[in-house]
Design goal:
- Helix content is 25%, strand content 43%.
- It is built from 3 helices and 7 strands, in the order E-E-E-E-H-E-E-E-H-H.
- The chain has helices at 55-59, 100-111, 123-140; strands at 12-21, 25-29, 32-43, 46-53, 64-76, 79-83, 89-95.
- A 5-stranded mixed barrel has the order 1-3-4-6-5.
- A hairpin with a 2-residue loop joins strand 2 (25-29) and strand 3 (32-43).
Length: 141
């Protein structure tokens, strides 16, 4: 539970929900570019800042439930900050929100159906389907 976390604590194993995600900041360290982003995460006991680095930033969305294994609680300006750290891992284990891509896909899927409920194929899809049919016919012969 978040309320039980202590600064400089390692081997943290916790599931939290992402409540907000701040702007991504880009930086350069030792000549290499990097990205960092803070997210506010919560559980039933409270909330804490979760620091996301590089590719982890793109894995996490607001509303996601995230399992942090072997995490670390650091400190920034006197406040505790949770991180997967160097040796930990972060995994999305659930989502309470539909992503924009999923919402767009659902709208597209509905608009691609005729009045009879059949899917209407675009010209590209018809061409692709025709090619696949020909390949299948060649395999049979």
């Amino acid at each position: 539970m978040i309320k039980d976390l202590k600064i400089r604590e390692g081997k943290v194993d916790i599931v939290v929900e992402v409540a907000e995600k701040s702007e991504i900041r880009e930086f350069e360290k030792f000549g290499k570019p990097g990205r960092v982003c803070n997210a506010k995460v919560k559980d039933d006991s409270g909330e804490i800042t979760l620091t996301l680095w590089n590719e982890d930033i793109d894995k996490i969305k607001v509303g996601d439930k995230v399992h942090i294994k072997n995490g670390y609680v650091g400190e920034w300006q006197g406040e505790p900050q949770l991180s997967a750290g160097r040796f930990g891992e972060m995994e999305v284990v659930g989502s309470s929100e539909v992503t924009n891509d999923e919402a767009k896909e659902a709208v597209i899927d509905e608009s691609m159906k005729s009045d009879e409920g059949e899917k209407v194929l675009s010209e590209d899809e018809k061409t692709e389907e025709s090619i696949l049919d020909n390949i299948e016919e060649e395999k049979v012969e």
